[in-house]
Amino acid sequence: MNYYKTGQFAKLANVSERTIRYYDKIGLLKPSFVMENGYRQYSDLDLLKLQKILSLKHLGFSIEEIFPMVMDNTNLKESFDLQINLIEDKISHLQSLKDALKRASQTPDLSWNMILSLVQLSNEETNIIEQYKNAKNLNDRISLHEKYSINKQGWFNWLFNQIDFSKVNRLLELGCGNGKLWQENRIELRNREIFLSDISEGMVEEVRNKLGSDFNCIVADAEKIPFKDSYFDTIIANHVLFYLNDLNLGLKEIDRVLKSDGILYCSTYGKNHMKEITEIVQNFDSRINLSNHSLYDIFGLENGEDILSKYFSNIQRMDYQDSLEITESKPLIDYIMSCHGNQNEILGPRLNEFKEYIEALLKNNGKIVVTKQAGLFVCRKRVIQ
Fold first, then answer.
1. pLDDT digits (tens, 9 = 90+) for 1-43
2. Least crowded by CB within 10 Å, which of 8, 30, 164, 282?
3. Domain boundary among 59, 75, 103
4. Does the predicted model carry a pTM greater than 0.90?
């Protein structure tokens, strides 16, 4: 193992000493050790970590987003594979943009449609990064539940078993995410049409790659469903409705595309769901909010029936019995950093300190027990006489 002073380390990496000191100051890249005289010593492992930081920064990730991605730098193959995949996506995008610019330069009469296509293509690089973040965040959240849930049936298996497939001829899932509901649960698809939709192109592409051509995978907005009236007999919205910009508009769209007496399966959380995780982060720093909105206030187990009753009848609520017993720090921290609040901004510079805080809780208690309060509403389209 080789060690380097700050100046040597910066020169090796072809960055300024100021950059190295800044990364040290904010806690993104600490030296392997500090000598009694205050000199910092960086190692070969620190050089690998710096390489990943610079690569991710070049690819468009912010400093706050990079913090959790470099916290665990032990799996070098996984680290390199991540960078390779992102770089390949960027190369593919740049090649497409180059080809489009060549075609435009050789076209005598440049149309507004071609200009618009170039503008959209130029903006796609941001979408590549966003799609990666969305997929990683979803996988981190699912992983925590799969690893530490005491109900071994699992949420997706339980949800699948609540669906009455004897009444399904044409089904739409809104917000299918990574297609987890269908990966281990298969039905007879003969004479059935199953449409899996998500607003994220990256998610839809992932589902298409995982599930093949048996399913119709489409990019669609739940507030503007691209199907004619009364088209589906069944719609699934698994932990989706509280994310809509306009919930009433989304419910109107679901009502519009459901057949008379069609069935909606929509899941959500209750106010106590994962409450211990919120308490843990706020005890560490009271400024942290894991969500910009309380999802259960928008559409939750407590108010869901009232919200749905405007469009649906025969509303039944079914609760899923489960909790988490977490015994490791990293999956919990990954989950926390995947949330939709301000945690990356606040925890990023203090991630090592936060890890020590979580590990102290685990050492003192043996495990962290987390309440889960999730459930499902099953309802029929209201038939107007």
1. 788 888 888 888 888 989 998 888 888 888 888 887 878 888 8
2. 164
3. 59
4. no
